[in-house]
Amino acid sequence: MAQVPQRFFDALAVRTWCGLSLRALGRAREEIDAINVYPVADGDTGTNLYLTVESAVAAVEAVFAAHETDDGPAGTGEGAGGAGGGPSLADTVGAMAHGALIGARGNSGTILAQLLRGMAQVLTTGGDSGHTGGPGLRLALRHAATSARQAVARPVEGTVLTVASAAADAAEGVEGDCAEVARAAYEGARVALAATPGRLPVLERAGVVDAGGRGLVTVLAALVETFTGRAPEPSALPHARVEHGGEHPAGERAPGEECPEPDAGNGPAFEVIYLLEAGDAAVARLRQRLDALGDSLVVVGGDGLWNVHVHVDDAGAAVEAGVEAGRPYRIRITHFGHGDAHTTAGVRTPRERTQRAVVAVVPGEGLAALYTEGGATTLLARPGEPPASGELVQALRRAHAREVVLLPNDAELRHTAAAAAEQARTEGIRVALIPTRSAVQGIAALAVHEPERRFDEDVVAMTSAAGATRHAEVTVAERQSWTTAGICQAGDVLGLIDGDVAVIGADVAQVAATVLDRMLSAGGELVTLVIGDEAPRTVADHLETRVRETHLAVDTVVYRGGRQGALLLVGVE
User: Fold this and answer.
1) Low-confidence ranges of the chain (pLDDT < 70)
2) How does DSSP assign 304-352, residue by residue?
3) pLDDT of residue 363
4) DSSP output for 376-418
């Protein structure tokens, strides 16, 4: 069915574009993964782009949901964010850029996040009209290409940067409306993508176009559909693979053009990605430090929040550099393996799978370390931004095992985890989903995990341990709302037991003590406390003392959870 075209670039157009981009990348993901040979042939560019846009979509949808809650239905007609009471263009593109920034994956995803941020920087300065036309879109595309190129330490032609610049160049000469500008940008990008093998020898030898550029063309095709109601014909896209030995779509390289490429088999061993809270001056020094440590350095963001991506041999040094610059978090370190990523032909020898692994979703850095020590592959959940099914599938693949036990550790992730498990099963992985509703239930399950047991027996034991653990959390209300314990106001301290609000109060320690007493009234032998960064420093000692003095023969164990969203997680076994 044809998409209803948008006349202007307004909040509703941003929402439409994000949704169409996500669907298009979902369809193209496997093809893009398959042609990923630069900067490393790790076969995940399509997936990384999909996850980056998925995070942007979630942020945009949250803005619309907030306006629907506050003002009634929003975004139902032309100019949402103008007189209709919906979100503004500035709010929506700002959310899109922020969502992409915090959810960016891999080299191409990080660059795409900066492209979206560059567009947002232009579109948020257009006054209070609530929308922009063709001239504003032209400026946004140009600033996007420029800012993305500036974010890459050593720009290479024949990549997504070349495609983005070509899109901006083609749009610059158009005087029409958004639809005409979008069509011109798409055509310019499409032609540049077809030319990438002639500009980068690693692509020419592999017989493919650039994977990141292919993803950007897909996103620009969605932009065309947003303003015209119809996507460009699939046949208009250049073939992902090109024939060897014949004339390249790119023609010949310009004489003397430099085409840097990875050193096959000898590239850095690790990909390091983290979010960083730091000032501009500190980030400038960080760029120099990381550029000396490795390659494929991309630092995007601004206003105190950055996404850092680099390939290095010394992952610890890359993280330490972030610590010196500011506060790094959501740190992801991926080992490329021996000869499986830095190749020029994209041919990899798969390493042998282990028999069994545990994959767990965890809410904070402290728990991620705890689960990792317990042998689990972890996926760090962002507070208020649960992982998508694609991220869970990636984690299941990353475990590289024939049998995987999946611990979602969140009741809201039940359907998402089930979808991810089903996808992994189609790829030959045996997956058992244990419906853990909290990270403390996952801790109990992991404690009894024994890889040497038969798979079914191990799953039963872990499920039993999780089910025998009551869970609670102490958090702060964000807004006034009805609860099972009465009406709470923004800023109230809430104690939730097994997912339901049981206590409303003003003091964290007092609410936590009440929650703990109620849980232990039904009995228990072990109390697990996971303390978040925002909790008062004395709360753990206070609760340990209370258990020791009022509940004989009950042991207490305390963990530091980091930035986990909740002030406190409680488990009683």
Assistant:
1) 1-4, 42, 69-85, 126-129, 234-266, 335-352, 382-385
2) TEEEEEEEES-HHHHHHHHHHHSEEEEEEEEE--SSSSS-SS----PPP
3) 86
4) -EEEEPBTTBPPPHHHHHHHHHHH-EEEEEEE--SGGGHHHHH
* Contact yes or no for 130/82 (Cβ under 8 A): yes
Nearest to 172 by CA among 163, 162, 181: 181
Chain centre to alpha carbon of residue 268: 23
- In a 3-state reduction of DSSP, which class is residue 498? coil
Locate 351 and state its tokens: 């390493």
Report the C-alpha gap between 52 and 55 in whole angstroms: 5
Among 413, 466, 456, CA closest to 432: 456
543 φψ region: left (φ > 0), alpha (ψ -120 to 50), beta (else): alpha
Ordered DSSP codes for 219-253: HHHHHHHHHHSSPPPGGGSPPSB--SSS--TT-PP
**Distance, CA of 377 to CA of 391 (rounded, Å):** 13
Strand 354-362 relative to strand 401-407, pairing: parallel
- Rounded to the nearest 10 degrees, the angle between the axes of helix 134-151 and helix 160-172 is 150
- Starting at the edge strand found earlier in the chain, the sheet holding 305-312 runs 294-302, 305-312, 270-277, 327-335
Phi, psi of 39 (to 5 degrees): -75, -20
Residue 176 tokens, joined: 């029409």
Count Cβ atoms below 10 Å from residue 550 Cβ, excluding itself: 12
CA distances from 549 to 332, 474, 552 (A): 42, 22, 7
DSSP 489: -
Q: Which residues pair with 529 in a beta bridge?
A: 558, 570
Tokens of 175: 């005087």
**What DSSP assignment string belongs to 260-309?**
----TT-S-SEEEEEEEE--HHHHHHHHHHHHHHEEEEEEEEETTEEEEE
Q: Cis before residue 39, ω within 30 degrees of 0?
A: yes
In tens, the pLDDT along 72-83 reads: 444 444 444 444
